[in-house]
Amino acid sequence: MSRESFEAHLDTARLARLADLVTLGDPVWTDDLDIPAVRARLADVEVMLTSWGGCLYVFRQAVRGVLGS
Q: What does pTM read for this prediction?
């Protein structure tokens, strides 16, 4: 998700409300899935908000492709 899209959908107030409901990982946002910290976080992600669209199957395939599993 681009920085602009992230900020448009999850401004400070919305992000704070979301943080009240769930534990947010670090990093909360990225546009680069090749960063080691991001790749490590993907292995434990339960819910991911994206601007990818499409269905859950496509999402699962994308995550598997990034993680190599």
A: 0.59
